[in-house]
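Bump. Still looking for SGNH hydrolase structure tokens.
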Amino acid sequence: MVLLAQALYVKRTTPRLPGAAGPTEGLVPGDGEPFRLAVLGESTVDGVGAADHEEALTGCLARELARDGRAVRWQAVGRTGANARVTRAELAPLVRPADLVVIALGVNDTIELRTAAAYRRDLLRLVLDLRRRLGPVDVLLAGVPPMSRFPALPRPLRDVLSARSTALDRAAATLGHVPGVRHLPMDPALLDPAAFASDRFHPGPAGYARWARTLALSVIS
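Sorry for the wait, here they are.
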């Protein structure tokens, strides 16, 4: 009963921020044929907490990947509230041909109390579907954010969701054995209070910039 009451309280009191405004595709100018980046997933890809996609995850990641002077063409395919199953069924078909697909999921699956096995199965099917459509594209699985760091969540609800998000991320990490798939766990240190938007649940521009920097380093290294 305590967990249910806390969940209802959080849902009622947490401000509902919109997704990022503006185009969901863009180009960072540079040399040569553009590197094609697609980012796919939940509200963080929808850009909740940022004014537009330029300062949300996809735009920040594209700029980080362009630091060596190459051009980067980017596409953000996200939906607030999407879990892995919805992403596979409704969002993956919208992804254009890409050199790299970054998948950012897990928070909604955590909230829905999906099992680790079910989440892993959904992610694997998503990767397979993408490759059937796009060919042998590289895939980077962004780690499930550690929900122990979300200021909007009270205890003990935070502890329960933290354990579940950790389990889901460990399940996702096993897909790193699939050729062409990498998994990058999120460093909890990225989620200090300054990283969050006003709802204390989604990243703000500073949080997106930090996250994008770590993702880019894993791609470049």
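The chain has one domain: 1-7+36-68+82-218.

Edit: fixed formatting.
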